[in-house]
Amino acid sequence: MIFALDVGTRKVAGLIGYIENDVLNVVDFEAIEHPTRNMLDGQIHDIKGVATVIETVKKRLEERNEVELHEVAVAVAGRFLKTVTLEAEMDFSGDLIDEITVRELEMKALSQIPPTDDSGSELHCVGYSVIEYRLDGLWIKNLISHRGRKLYTRVVAALLPVQVVDAMTIALRKAGLRPCFLTLEPMAALEIAVPEDLRILNIALVDIGAGTSDIAVSRGGTIVGYDMVPMAGDEITEVIAQSYLLDFLSAEKLKRMINDGASFEMIDVTGNKVIINGSSVSTVISPVVELIARSIAEKIKQLNLSKPSALFLVGGGAKLRHLKNELAHALDLPMERVALRTVEELPRVKSLREDFKGSEYVTLAGIAYVSAYNSGSIYDTVSLNGEKIRLIRVGQAQSVLQLLIQKGFKFTEIFGTPQPTITFELNGETHLIPGKITGGLKVLLNGTEVPLHHTIRNGDEIIIQYNKVEEVAPRLQDFAKQIVIEVDQQEILRLLPKISINGELVENLERPIKDGDKVLIEYPDVEEVKKIIYEEFGFVNYSINGENKTVQKIFFEVSEIKDENEKERKYIFKTHKTRIKDVLPKYEPVKVFFNDEEITLSPMNNIVLVNGEYLSVESELLEGMTIEHPRWQPIVADVLAKINLKTDGIADYRIFLNDRPANFVDKVSDNDKIRFEIFRKVQ
Q1: What is the pLDDT of residues 362-384, one digit of tens each?
Q2: What topology is assigned to 584-681 in CATH?
Q3: Cβ-based neighbours of 154, under 8 Å, separated by 6 or more
């Protein structure tokens, strides 16, 4: 059993029925007017008042038919309707195009929907229609099961403020009803009044109610678009009320009885009885009727880019003969091309009640008919990362993408953020970092990863995981290696190389490299690193031969530089503590000639006087040491000791230094010539 409601500005109409052989069979219906102006221009203003009328319609249908009604299909008016036309294309490399591929193409177009309007108000995508498909540049009615490489679509998406949907659902809930289906009034009216086989014709449909005139246009087998005019029957009623000083309900009654040749007796707001001629009423309402007709015509022409071939009128406001005439005139159509569509003449509607007649029930029948083929609660409950979410369904199955949009996710959160290409110079070499889309969401539906276009149903558990946002912009740390100083297998220090960007020194490795930057990274050599380590280990003070001096506490023996990985450059040193011999004067060897044989003399003394005591030169140099170390000066005796001269058996000899007589203690220098002559041996 289908229960449908058309919650209009002037009245609430409901029906119960069922679908059989693609025909809506209406079992019963009820229509009740609002006792006060609970709604204006199709928008609910007094939620409690509207809920009361809805509840009355519900109870009357329940009582007459002995049923309990809990769920209802409804439609919202387009008072705040916004539509956007979107397009998308994609490459296809598979065999046959399937339904999933087509949905991906459509979702790609819908992903461009703005989340808010110009004022910042949140918008919901409540439905969309495909305007056209193209396959490799050629128009095609349906892509499924075709072959091709380039797919294209253009869609029109309908958007409504969140407040419109909320007001409707709250009013229904107060009346004890749960909305199981929600659509737009012009979508429902078009579906039932303009079957698919008629949409190849250029037909405009206008649902004229009390508060709004909702427009839909079909051409070439598809829906061209939707729009609305925020004027309808109430504007005419208000003019009558103002002109004849009537209350709104009396003026509404007079509007429905207009006949140019008749007169009507009414009571004005002062209590006086007045006689009103039908012709004068026509004259009074003529300017506003003309304005409404002209506004509707302009919207139709904007959607259609020209006048349509025919115009269908539905809704209670469409019954006004003057409005039909003005619309034909405004669109430059013959009168026979402007037709009033009534529910009893629709081939897909059959009623068990003979009084279910008139143009005012076409939209109601359309809501019931469409809901039967697009079942699914707008408040089905799903779980999103553990949070229970009421799922809005509007005219079609809901996808993960639509749920995320409903929850207020931004498109950059869903699809990721595009990063630009960055080109920079590093030590004179050009580097290019290509741009890419990074971030976005990963969707797990009941534990399985699914694409964003995947359909979701009541009870589904959805887990949203954020993909890692990888910044394409490189940072200095991606190219500058840390300097690691290792001494005797122990890491003692970490430093940064000298880094400059565009000539300015930079110390923060987190600093991003921007497009066009010139980066220079300079690493120290071994000697520069040694100076740094000297400061780390400190110095020792001492004196030698009365002269105060300072020297580092350690000495380096071996050094090595190697790149450990992409992040580190290691400087490896082996050291020993400074010893006394390290600070003693360094003497060059002395070369002399003894009897024409070259002899090399080097210092041989391993003992020094330190603080008055003799110590080995291998001893550690300590703070405050006083060292006495006479300058080394080789003598003739050192030469004789070097050659291990044996004087046994020699009674007399002479020593000459550079051809001059010399003795054992005479000093020798480089290239001196020493001659040893034996004059007499022991007998």
Answers
A1: 999 999 998 887 633 344 567 88
A2: Ubiquitin-like (UB roll) (3.10.20)
A3: 85, 86, 87, 109, 130, 131, 132
